[in-house]
Amino acid sequence: MSDPAVRGPVSWTTIVPVVALVLLAATWANHDAWPVLVAVALALVGAVVAAVHHAEVVAHRVGEPFGSLILAVAVTVIEVGLIVMLMIGGGDGASTYARDTVFAALMITLNGIVGISLLVGALRHHLVSFNATGTGSALSTVVVLAVVCLVLPGFTVSAEGLSYSPSQLAFVSVASLVLYGAFVLTQTVRHRDFFLPVSSDDQGRVTGLLDEDEDGHADPPSDRAALLSLGLLVVSLVSVVGLAKILSPTIEDAVSSLGLPYTVVGVVIALLVLSPESISALRNATRDRVQNSLNLAYGSAMAAMGLTIPTIAVVMIWLDGELVLGLERLQIVLLAVTVAVSTLTVAPGRAKTLQGVLHLVLFATFLFFSVMP
Q: What pTM does this model have?
């Protein structure tokens, strides 16, 4: 990866985030005209691509798995802000918006990002290899978080419907933070080697860690370039979520006019917000760095629950209304099948194109039944 400083400060990756942020500020209060909405959509796409570039610069500087962690946490923090803003705005789906968005993020990461990464990686390199120990621990953490945060509310009796009581929500929030913190400590300190890209033989069997210093990549960027990219990454992500918020009423109107379920809004917003991670994971897969792609996917799924649920729980102190977190029956079935297939995918430590197809079919099934429940 080249150093942004080499190309100078007038690179498009420097200009686009700033232009997107200026457009966000200029159109925040008045954006009803179609030309404005088109400009917002174009700026959103540009900000997504710029975010991917700057995330990769930072990741190259700090190394893995810190790079994947930075992007996952950054996107999730901004996603939380978007959920809170939409919940404050109220509406018919406000009580389920957090659940629908988090579940959509789970399906996008566990099936969409994982599926396309495995498929593209296996098509280009015949087999893709990764560390089953590290990836397995990430998947296990995601499963426990999903059950505690999204499945159990439908089986408790202290509160009506698919909600937690205040004391239950407090416990689940603390448990989520503990799980997320424990995993981050494992990934970045105690067992960092389990989350680094691996080398493999012709049969896809892991032979050791990939030598990042002799892989043909450019030297890491300078501290100055990395700090510049970190700042522009934040600007890009703020722009992505802010512009998505501007487009959300248009999306809601389109969903309503088409007679689609309100959950589709959460799916669309989650797709927009997770676009930087999706593109970054795909790029890693093409370079035979599927371990990085899986780090991004499972790390994002983990952060979507481990950070979002506690934050929403705190926000609910000041918001009126109910917070529905429990999944519906169809969602539980999709989650259960996803967990089973993910376990079989991760366990061998290597994957063929078939595994990618399986996950993508599950993702397509989720999208179809979100539109046609």
A: 0.81
